C-alpha cells in the first residue's frame, strides 16, 4: 500500500473533489483547448501552489511547461490570442469563471461536447 504525505494526501483529496464538482466525459485544456479524458487531465494552479486559487484543467504538456509561472505571464508568452482574453460564450453574463460549465468550454466547441 502506498502512503501519502500530508500535502500529497491533501492534494489528492482536492483533485478528487474538483472532479466531483466538475463531472464530464471530456475536459478541455485551459491553455491549448485540446479535449482530454479524466485520466489525462491535470489541474493547474493558476498562480502558484502556495496560494489557494483557481485550478483550471490543463494537459500534461501545458501544465509542465507553465511550471510556477503565473497564468497571465504564461498566456502572454505562449497563447497571446487565448480565449480567456476573448468574449465568453453568449450564455455567460459574467467574467470568465472556472466553476461555470459554459466558461469551461472553448468558445468554438460544438454542442456534442456539452453534458
How would you characterize the overall build of this protein?
The protein is mainly alpha-helical and 115 residues long. The N and C termini lie far apart (36 Å). The protein is globular and about 40 Å long. It has one domain. The chain is 30% helix and 7% strand.
In quaternary terms, these chains amount to single chain
Shape, principal axes of CA atoms: globular
The order of strands across the largest sheet is 1-2
The largest sheet, given as strand count, sense and whether it forms a barrel, is: 2 strands, antiparallel
**Over all CA atoms, what is the radius of gyration?**
15 Å
* Poorly predicted segments: 107-115
The average pLDDT value, as a whole number, equals 76
- Helix count, per DSSP? 4
Structural class: mainly alpha
Question: What is the total tally of β strands?
Answer: 4
- Proportion of residues in helical segments: 25-40%
Overall number of structural domains: 1
Order of helices and strands: HEEEEHHH
Distance between the termini: 36 Å
Strand content: 5-15%
Considering the chains and any ligands shown, give keywords for the structure:
single chain, 4 helices, 4 strands, disordered C terminus, mainly alpha
Short characterization:
The protein is mainly alpha-helical and 115 residues long. The protein has helices at 6-21, 60-66, 71-78, 101-104, and strands at 27-28, 35-36, 42-43, 57-58. It contains 4 helices and 4 strands.
What is this structure's SSE topology?
Blueprint: H1 6-21, E1 27-28, E2 35-36, E3 42-43, E4 57-58, H2 60-66, H3 71-78, H4 101-104
Antiparallel strand pairs: 1-2, 3-4
